[in-house]
Specification:
Layout lengths: L1 H46 L3 E9 L4 E3 L10 E4 L6 E2 L4 E5 L2 H27 L3 H31 L7 H29 L3 H26 L2 E3 L4 E6 L13 E4 L4 E8 L11 E5 L6 E9 L4 E2 L14 E9 L4 H4 L6 E6 L2
Antiparallel strand pairs: 1-9, 1-14, 2-8, 3-5, 4-7, 5-6, 7-8, 9-13, 10-11, 10-14, 11-13, 12-13
Helix pairs in contact: 2-5, 3-4
């Protein structure tokens, strides 16, 4: 009995520990259930939240910085043929550089050399003129007659060589004359053949010279074209960096863009990217204007990089990782934003 009374306090403590453990287990289960319910509710809410970002206005054609390849001395503008704000067509000459005259002269010389090579080949293929051919035929006929006469004289001298009327010296002279006449006839026939049909090797040499002249003209033409600044697209000259007489800077001579279609390049945080999709509607807010311009997501970038557009919030991240997202602006925004390339705007992309 005494032992039972001594064990009662320990049993009470043990029972309390068991009840406390059961309560903790039940509370943890309820907490887990509550967290799961909160996450289940928050998931669709997060999916319905849009994305805000800073962006800049940019033509869909991008801004083209036009320049030219130049030597160590650089390039200078000799003639400036456009002004800022002027609309130009693709292929239009915008400016001429100082070395255009020299390169044009080189091209003209190459063109003359090509014409000369073509004339020489044509003359070679056409062979001799009619008068030259007739004269050659006459020389061949005369050489044949002389050969026949010399051959008869040689034959007669040979028959008389063993008689009192002939001698060895006369026979040698007539034989040599016959051989010389045969050689003259062969040379005349060769000249006539050359006039009637040129040799294959001569034609090959002349054709090679013609190909070299064509290549030289192509190179001279390409160098001449590099002395002119030509518009690569239809667009508007939005900035000129070098005037007549000035050296073209490293950034180029001028900037050209097609302002008929504008875009906004938004820098979206990498963590917000899952909520951005192509085709999503958006709004563009221009600082200082009450009107909001509609836009639509057309392209999502492929790389993550540091942000290039800094906001005015002093506590905002200045080394954030972003992805460029391009949005097409509504055509109604073009008159208001055509002259605001690179302007900073705010973008709100709807879910």
């Amino acid at each position: 009995m005494t032992r039972l009374r001594q064990s009662l306090p320990w049993l009470a403590v043990l029972g309390g520990i068991v009840l406390l453990g059961a309560a903790l287990v039940a509370g943890s289960a309820m907490l887990r259930d509550g967290t799961a319910r909160e996450q289940a509710v928050a998931a669709p809410v997060a999916a319905q939240v849009g994305v805000g970002a800073l962006g800049r206005v940019e033509p869909a054609s991008r801004v083209r910085r036009l320049a030219t390849a130049s030597g160590p001395e650089g390039a200078r503008i000799a003639r400036l043929l456009v002004r800022e704000g002027e609309h130009v067509a693709a292929g239009q000459v915008l400016a001429e550089f100082h070395d255009l005259a020299r390169k044009q002269a080189t091209m003209d010389q190459a063109s003359a050399n090509l014409a000369l090579a073509e004339a020489q080949l044509a003359r070679l293929l056409a062979a001799g003129r009619d008068t030259d051919i007739a004269a050659a035929r006459a020389r061949v006929a005369a050489a044949q007659a002389a050969e026949q006469s010399a051959a008869r004289e040689a034959a007669r001298a040979e028959r008389l060589r063993g008689t009192p009327a002939g001698n060895e010296a006369t026979w040698d002279r007539t034989r040599f004359a016959a051989a010389q006449a045969a050689a003259e006839r062969a040379r005349a026939e060769a000249e006539l053949k050359a006039l009637l049909s040129p040799r294959d090797e001569d034609v090959a040499v002349q054709r090679a010279q013609l190909d070299a002249a064509r290549a030289a003209l192509a190179q001279a033409t390409a160098e001449r074209d590099m002395a002119r600044l030509v518009a690569p697209i239809d667009g508007t000259v939005i900035r000129i960096m070098a005037r007549e007489g000035e050296k073209v800077p490293d950034e180029g001579a001028m900037e050209l863009a097609d302002l008929s279609r504008l875009q906004v390049v938004a820098e979206v945080y990498e963590t917000d990217l899952p909520r951005v999709r192509a085709g999503a509607a958006a709004e563009v807010i221009v600082p200082g204007e009450a009107q909001r311009y509609p836009a639509r997501v057309t392209e999502v970038g492929w790389t993550v990089r540091r942000n290039a557009i800094a906001g005015t919030d002093p506590v905002s991240a200045i080394d954030a990782r972003v992805v460029e997202v391009r949005l097409d602006l509504d055509p109604a925004a073009i008159p208001a934003l055509a002259r605001r390339t690179n302007m900073q705007v705010q973008v709100s992309i709807r879910p």
